[in-house]
Design goal:
mainly alpha; 8 helices; 273 residues; Methane Monooxygenase Hydroxylase, Chain G, domain 1; single chain; 2 strands; disordered C terminus; two-stranded antiparallel sheet
Length: 273
């Protein structure tokens, strides 16, 4: 899992010390995707090259979800390079990865719809491919903004560019850690992703506030303002779709402890004959 370098907020610290402790006392955690009972073992997959694999009908649900998230990770990495103006920017590959995400989403959704593992489990899982596909749509919005930026030569302020770098860095970290949480699921891994999602939510709100200050001061042109708002909205929705999947996986993995049914044996009173 990628290293978590961001400072934990006080509210997150309380959740980590109270909520998770209570959950540990009441529940154990079991791999929710492993309950499907079939598919290839994903523990030995090379996640760094997984995005290069083509869309496939022969992958299990867990492997298919990892394939989708790996392509989303690579899309985000490429988009960060695009907006940074690096020579390694590759928007065409980004478009191809988005097509792959859509194709794998369709395959997984059809596979889940045909399963008879358990209505509750399938009803929860069947939303996952579409939610990840929506994340891909939001990343495509970033790509559209980049292409429009190049076409019209829109420029951002230095502060806006620094904010973009922070936004892409955190989103990339969330996606990377989420992919790792699918491969090696645990309560702690999913909670870490949810904590990062909360930070991204707060980051978007903060950047929206500083953006409007620049607009009011005249430092931000109207064209750049419209594009920056589109980027922030897309980041917000991408994060929400990811957090919905992560929180559902966490909920699915919580297995309540079985409380033994102890019947207290009646003890004979010393006053009884």
């Amino acid at each position: 899992m990628a290293e978590l370098t961001n400072t934990v907020l006080p509210s997150e610290e309380r959740l980590a010390t109270t909520g998770s402790k209570e959950m540990r006392e009441r529940c154990s955690f079991k791999d929710p995707l492993g309950r499907l009972g079939h598919g290839h073992d994903t523990k030995d997959l090379d996640v760094e090259t997984l995005h290069r694999r083509p869309v496939s009908n022969s992958v299990g649900v867990e492997e298919g979800l990892m394939l989708m998230v790996s392509k989303l990770v690579e899309m985000t990495r490429l988009l960060a390079r695009c907006f940074s103006g690096l020579p390694t920017a590759d928007p065409e590959t980004c478009s191809r990865l988005a097509e792959d995400v859509r194709g794998q989403s369709l395959i997984l959704t059809k596979a889940l719809a045909s399963m008879r593992v358990g209505d509750g489990l399938v009803n929860s899982l069947i939303r996952f491919p579409m939610r990840l596909e929506r994340v891909g749509h939001m990343l495509e919005n970033f790509l559209d903004c980049y292409r429009e930026k190049r076409r019209t030569e829109i420029t951002f302020t230095d502060k806006a560019r620094r904010e973009q770098e922070q936004l892409f860095a955190l989103l990339l970290d969330i996606l990377t850690n989420f992919r790792d949480a699918i491969q090696n699921p645990s309560r702690e891994a999913l909670l870490a992703v949810l904590f990062q999602g909360k930070r991204l939510e707060e980051m978007v709100q903060q950047f929206a506030g500083t953006h409007w200050e620049r607009v009011k001061s005249g430092a931000c042109p109207v064209e750049a303002s419209t594009m920056w708002c589109e980027i922030l909205d897309s980041a917000k929705w991408a994060n929400e779709y990811l957090m919905e999947v992560a929180s559902t996986l966490l909920e699915m993995g919580e297995v309540p402890h079985q409380v033994p049914n102890r019947t207290m044996r009646r003890t004979r009173s010393v006053y009884e004959c």
